[in-house]
């Protein structure tokens, strides 16, 4: 085979090229810029995640009916009227009885007296409805069952209907 000088020089030049390069000070400056971009991108993603989570949580809060207990007095309570959250998908459990003040061993602030004796009482709390307005009334409640240590049934009430 006949090789020209240019071909041999080109072949030698290719052999001298290294497969791995060491990073010098010049290369590190570009890597700092890249790492700063990664940090900024990471912070932007965190802010977008928190912002979208906040927006979705605010959007999914159940609406309170016009007949909430904020502007209701004890004397204006009427039979058949509902108070509290209109969306009962969050508060799926129901119970009926006469509302009395008092819980059991620190659980619940009120309780529903139902037929069958004290073992059938439902102990109630609520951050949505002011249950004090309904003491002495026969009511139906919608709520979410909570774990309890002493109460047979502890419920967080979201909606009340006066019977």
Could you please describe the fold and organization of this structure?
The protein has 163 residues and is α+β, with helices and mostly antiparallel strands. It folds into two domains: 5-59; 69-162, OB fold (Dihydrolipoamide Acetyltransferase, E2P), CATH 2.40.50.110. The chain is 29% helix and 23% strand. It has two helices and six strands, in the order ααββββββ. The chain has helices at 5-16, 25-59, and strands at residues 82-84, 93-101, 110-113, 122-125, 138-146, 154-162. It has a five-stranded mixed barrel. A hairpin with an 8-residue loop joins strand 2 and strand 3. The protein is elongated and about 110 Å long. The N and C termini lie far apart (108 Å). The relative contact order is 0.15. The mean pLDDT is 80.
Secondary structure layout:
Blueprint: H1 5-16, H2 25-59, E1 82-84, E2 93-101, E3 110-113, E4 122-125, E5 138-146, E6 154-162
Parallel strand pairs: 4-6
Antiparallel strand pairs: 1-6, 2-3, 2-5, 3-4, 5-6
């Amino acid at each position: 085979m006949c090789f020209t000088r240019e071909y041999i020089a080109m072949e030698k030049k290719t052999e001298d090229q290294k497969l791995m390069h060491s990073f010098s000070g010049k290369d590190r400056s570009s890597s700092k810029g890249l790492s700063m971009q990664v940090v900024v991108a990471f912070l932007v993603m965190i802010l977008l995640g928190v912002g979208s989570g906040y927006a979705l949580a605010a959007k999914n809060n159940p609406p309170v009916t016009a007949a909430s207990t904020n502007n209701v007095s004890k004397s204006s309570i009427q039979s058949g009227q509902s108070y509290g959250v209109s969306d009962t998908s969050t508060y799926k459990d129901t119970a009926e009885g006469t509302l009395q003040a008092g819980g059991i061993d620190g659980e619940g602030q009120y309780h529903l007296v139902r037929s069958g004796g004290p073992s059938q009482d439902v102990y109630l709390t609520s951050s949505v409805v002011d249950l004090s307005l309904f003491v002495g009334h026969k009511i139906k409640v919608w709520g979410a069952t909570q774990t309890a240590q002493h109460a047979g049934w502890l419920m967080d009430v979201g909606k009340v209907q006066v019977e």
